[in-house]
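Render this sequence as a predicted structure.
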Amino acid sequence: MRGLFEKLLNAFTAILMVGVLLVLVVISTGCSRTKVTEDFFQSYQVSPGTVLEIYNPNGPVSVVGTDQEELEITALKETYQSQSALDMVDIFIDLSDILVIETLYPNDTKKVTVSYEIKVPEDVMVSVIECSNGDIDVNQVRGDPLLTTSNGNINVSEVRGTISARSSNGDLTITNVDGLDYLRTSNGNIEADLLAVKENLEIMTSNGSINLYINPELALELEASTSNGEINITNLSLETTLHEQTALLGSMNGGGPLLNIATSNGSIALAQLQ
């Protein structure tokens, strides 16, 4: 009987050791993944007023204005696959009437991330920046950029133009710009300066708070609502027809274009732009 017990114990120990070895092999294999990278750099002489469009399905984009004469494109390709995966992803640049920078993926495979840092002369007009997965940062440029990302934050500052920004999952932060067209995100907070408004404007998120700093000299109609949160006003002169915890109707300086602010889950704070 004792011999049978020892045989069973030895068999169990052997099985256990095999399991441990398999776990170690899996862990070792996972840790051995190596990131493969490739740098890209190009500079171009561009004409004053050149319009810039950027399309990058998988990765962040940063665009900043400089006082230099050439437009510089710095990019970094990254993957955990192989060098061949990097080689299959192409950075396409079209220097016709509109300067287009586009990341091209074969067969819609997104196993390679491409990150862009682009420096533009001050007279370049930024028009479109479109990402699927990645943050968008725009600073010290001109134009009326349409900014779109599915999963990422959008940060904009010091733009001489009107901003349109949309993200599905990410925060929007817009400061020191000439104007806003619309700001929308599904899951994220919105913080923005409103210096001027020419047409009706929507600022909306589904899950997040909204902080808006408004030029006190603007003439506009105002609607604000939240399902779960509260609405607060600081140092703004509003004529209100409705002001409850979750809803606000009013006007500034006799009324004008409609400013519609809404969130489902979050608070709304309206304050004077300093």
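Summary. Residues 2-31 form the longest helix (30 residues). The CA atoms of residues 129 and 271 lie 29 Å apart.
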